[in-house]
From TrEMBL:
GO terms for biological process: maturation of 5.8S rRNA; maturation of LSU-rRNA. One of its GO terms (molecular function) is endonuclease activity. The lineage of its organism: Eukaryota, Fungi, Fungi incertae sedis, Zoopagomycota, Kickxellomycotina. InterPro entries: Las1. It comes from the Eukaryota. This is rRNA-processing protein las1. It comes from Coemansia spiralis. GO terms for cellular component: Las1 complex; preribosome, large subunit precursor. It holds the Pfam family Las1. Transmembrane segments: none annotated.
């Protein structure tokens, strides 16, 4: 059954765990920061009631510690009582699911909430307020109960050396698997009656079981974000999905994986997809492979490669793995629900043309015949551009001779085809809004003379101050920025690429609701 992702206000598990650490910190400044983080989450979207209750109780503890603005004991009692009442009500209401309403005490007992929390709620609502010492103790106990009831079940911490552990665990499993295969081959080639052969096979089986248990346990401790942060980066390194021995790697242009390599990784893939699902694991793996094969063209330029460029055999093996994933888990358009989606893969290859993105597009064309006709112009254009680049590099490096170049492509024809490909690319991804923006700018420009002509008589009758205001307003109007000055930045960041701080500033809490100024 397809499992839809849940939208949460935090960006990552690391941010979630950082908020928990701040809310339960003994440092008051850290608790303030945790409360500010939760306030920022409220602005982003819906926050779970357990987090809301934790933040309210933590904020109450901070206010009690500072006691600013001359807060009296009676006011603190009312503030504590309200925080505790809302804590009990919000948590208990989650269990109110039947047609007929059940008592708060019954629902609290069902979820394991101490009964005296319910009694304290009743006293704060209908009877005399409990003492301040009782309310302070109840607030501390409520925070501890929330930590056991909610936070400890949600947060799964990862050590700082998680990637090292993942790399070591996978490497140990691969070594044990290889040793077991050698032992099985040794026993098959010789007489199984020899005790030495039997002992070697038994030792290999024991090592294999130990490595399998260790890797399974490690994967079970990782959360979903660890797939992108730790597991996938290790898998695409040399020595894992890409064998260290080059004779075992795939080769261009076929890009076919050896059957032994696929068989060796079938069991680890089953371990990785068991806790996280096939869709999450394989889509993260595809994204990492495409990112490694197609560097960002906005930073390096089209068809350029950085210092850490992959070797040809390494890239061919990654392309072969992409072929295997698509053939095994992708259903072409028009079929049943597919395990993986290729929209991000296609956009990464088309937006960042490279030496290997053309091979990936060919793989997609082979797997999905319906896309072959649409992708054919892009593949052909990349081939011509690469041929022209190779010819230019060969001409620049070769000594001057009278011989003809290996391949020449007319520059004008290449530019015309590039413009055609850009138009098709804009149509494919819905980015063709530049024309409409240009038309709107032309309308504004053409309307200026009429506006100026009608405003001349009025301008003569205005004062110098009004003219200055009009000049300043005209200067501050929005203007069209030339396309050459545009820069790319990830979604959710500022123009310079930095991530904005969305935490709730502490100083906002100290701003009075009704500010007064002396006359």
């Amino acid at each position: 059954m397809l499992k839809f992702p849940k939208v949460v206000p935090w960006a990552s598990t690391e941010e979630y765990m950082a908020a928990a650490d701040c809310l339960y910190s003994s440092d008051i400044s850290e608790r303030k920061r945790g409360v500010a983080i939760v306030k920022a989450w409220r602005a982003r979207g819906r926050v779970p009631v357990a987090i809301e209750a934790t933040a309210s109780l933590a904020e109450m503890c901070v206010a009690d510690h500072e006691q600013r603005h001359g807060v009296t004991i009676c006011q603190l009692q009312h503030m504590y009582a309200m925080a505790l009442i809302r804590f009990v009500n919000s948590i208990v209401d989650l269990e109110q699911k039947g047609v007929y309403a059940q008592s708060v005490a019954m629902l609290a007992g069902r979820i394991g909430m101490p009964a005296w929390f319910v009694e304290l709620r009743h006293a704060g609502t209908h009877e005399q307020l409990p003492s301040l010492a009782t309310l302070r103790s109840a607030c501390a106990q409520a925070l501890l109960w929330l930590r056991d009831y909610y936070w400890s079940k949600q947060v799964r911490r990862l050590p700082a050396d998680t990637m090292i552990q993942v790399r070591a665990g996978i490497a140990e499993y691969l070594s044990a698997s290889e040793a077991r295969q050698k032992a099985v081959a040794l026993v098959a080639s010789r007489s199984a009656k020899h005790s030495a052969n039997s002992s070697v096979l038994a030792a290999a089986e024991t090592a294999m079981e130990s490595a399998t248990t260790a890797l399974t346990s490690l994967v079970a401790r990782l959360h979903a974000d660890a797939v992108r942060l730790y597991v996938v980066p290790v898998l695409i390194e040399s020595g894992f999905l890409v064998p260290s021995e080059k004779r075992l790697r795939a080769k261009f242009p076929d890009c076919k994986l050896p059957a032994a390599l696929v068989e060796a990784w079938s069991a680890p893939f089953a371990m990785f997809t068991a806790p996280w699902g096939e869709t999450l694991f394989y889509e993260e793996l595809l994204a990492a492979m495409v990112s490694a094969l197609t560097p960002d063209s906005s930073e390096l330029g089209i068809f350029e490669s950085g210092d850490g460029a992959l070797s040809t055999s390494h890239a061919a093996t990654l392309v072969a793995w992409i072929r295997w994933i698509l053939e095994s888990h992708y259903v072409p358009s028009g079929g049943k629900a597919s395990t993986v989606s290729i929209e991000d893969l296609l956009e990464g290859c088309l937006r960042n043309p490279s030496y290997y993105s053309r091979s990936v597009l060919r793989v997609v064309s082979d797997v999905d015949p319906a896309l072959k006709r649409d992708l054919k112009p892009f593949v052909e254009y990349m081939g011509k551009a690469l041929a022209a680049l190779v010819a230019e590099e060969a001409k620049a490096s070769a000594p001057p001779t009278n011989s003809k170049p290996l391949l020449t492509v007319p520059l004008k024809a290449l530019q015309e085809e590039e413009a055609l490909m850009q138009r098709r690319l804009d149509q494919l991804f819905g980015a063709g809004r530049e024309a409409s923006q240009t038309e709107s700018m032309d309308v504004d420009v053409s309307a200026k003379p009429a506006a100026t002509a009608t405003s001349v008589p009025e301008a003569r009758s205005t004062t110098a101050a009004a003219m200055a205001l009009q000049t300043e307003a005209a200067a501050n109007r929005w203007s069209y920025v030339p396309e050459a000055a545009w820069t790319q930045c990830p979604i959710g960041t500022l123009c310079d690429g930095t991530v904005p701080a969305l935490e709730w500033p502490v100083w906002i809490d100290s701003v009075p609701l009704h500010a007064t100024t002396p006359l």
